[in-house]
Amino acid sequence: MNEELAATAGVPQVKGEAQEAHPLIKRNLSLLGHVNVQLDVLVGRASVSVERLFSLAKGDVVALDAGMDEPVTIRLDGKVVAKGHLVAVGDQFGVKISEIL
């Protein structure tokens, strides 16, 4: 995602290194620290009819039920674990975590 696209979408740009922060939960992860997990970010949802679903074509837009400034939901294995806001990190999206649940 380029800076112009991020500005158009209203996604803040994040540059440089993240500020040093202390984790909310301190744990000894010596046995599990190397294990990778998959996080999903839910931006919003849309309800469409089957007719609309099958009529979708390249370039169509599906409106989501979330506003541009609303927090996104971060899930681990289907369970909500945090909330955050979308940011642009260079040419990619990122999530700035605002709340750990």
Q: What's the layout of helices and strands?
A:
Elements: H1 3-9, E1 39-42, H2 50-55, E2 72-76, E3 79-89, E4 92-100
Number of strands: 4
Residues in β-strands, percent: 25-35%
Overall domain count: 1
The radius of gyration is 17 Å
CATH level-four homologous superfamily name? SpoA-like
What class would the helix/strand composition place it in? Answer: alpha+beta
Largest sheet: 4 strands, antiparallel
Helical content class: 10-25%
The top-level CATH class is: Mainly Beta
- Please give the count of helices: 2
Question: If you consult CATH, what is the topology?
Answer: Surface presentation of antigens (SPOA)
Dominant shape: elongated
Stretches with pLDDT under 50, minimum 5 residues: none
Strand order of the largest sheet: 1-2-3-4
Q: Just name the CATH architecture.
A: Roll
Average pLDDT value? 81
What distance separates the N and C termini?
29 Å
Order of helices and strands: HEHEEE
Describe the protein:
With 101 residues, this protein is of the alpha+beta class. It has a single domain (3-16, 29-100), classed as Surface presentation of antigens (SPOA). It has helices spanning 3-9, 50-55; strands at residues 39-42, 72-76, 79-89, 92-100. It has a 4-stranded antiparallel beta sheet with strand order 1-2-3-4, with no helix packed on it. The model has no long low-confidence stretch (mean pLDDT 81).
